[in-house]
Amino acid sequence: MTAPDRAALREHLVRTMISGDVATPRQNNLLHYRRMAAGNPYYLFGLDLKRSWTERDVLEVMVERCGVDPDPAHLYGDDTIDPELTLDALEAMGDRIGRAATRREAVVLATGHPSTLTPVYQAVAEALRAAGCRILTPAAGWAYEVEVSYSAPERRRLVYAPHGVAMLESDDGRTRHTHDAAPMEAMLEELAAESGDWPDLAIADHGWAGAAGEAGIDSVGFADCNDPALFAGAAEGKIEVVVPLDDGISPHHYAPMTAYLLRRAGLG
């Protein structure tokens, strides 16, 4: 599709609630901020954060980098993502992807939101491959067990969607949401041990992005307002770019954003 200009994309982001007034509950945001500050691994996304983060510190960085409501007394209801911050970060991500294309870098792409964000990653992967980049796909088939509430542990397997986007799949063939860093860690371990190849860039979210950033790889990605770890990682210099957005919107609504990103990268 034809890429919109910035003003048109801003209107689209707000209208579809990708940013602006979003549907993510404020109480869920604050719960995640509290758990990240407490050092809960599920909310750290594979990052070893160096400073001591209080819940108030987390809220402040989310105000600065995501645009959530700054009022600490706002405990319930919906929250916000500043569309200007979304657009600024999207342009910064496009600039980094553009450099990857020019340099023909090795790139890994992965998502913990396969049901919504996969088309974004696939479009970027296809464009980068056409520009001469190597899309790395290590550790296909690697599997582990995860704890699932009120049931026995489930086995999850690392698979690749067309164009080389990593994600998790359960034994019933369904793709799965994940915060885990372990799959990206497995990918990097295989690359280090077997191929000698190493990513110049990771384009990812959740623990996939966190683990790549922790390993010293240039990492750019997306994060919702209830996912503070990547924003904290960016504040500490471990993540290069985090685009704030609601990551649970119908996939087709991300198409104008994807077109804008690729045009900014010089690939659209």
TrEMBL record:
Family annotation (InterPro entries): Phosphatase_SCO2771
Domain of life: Bacteria
UniProt xrefs under Pfam families: Phosphatase (PF15698)
Protein name in the entry: Phosphatase
Species of origin: Actinomadura viridis
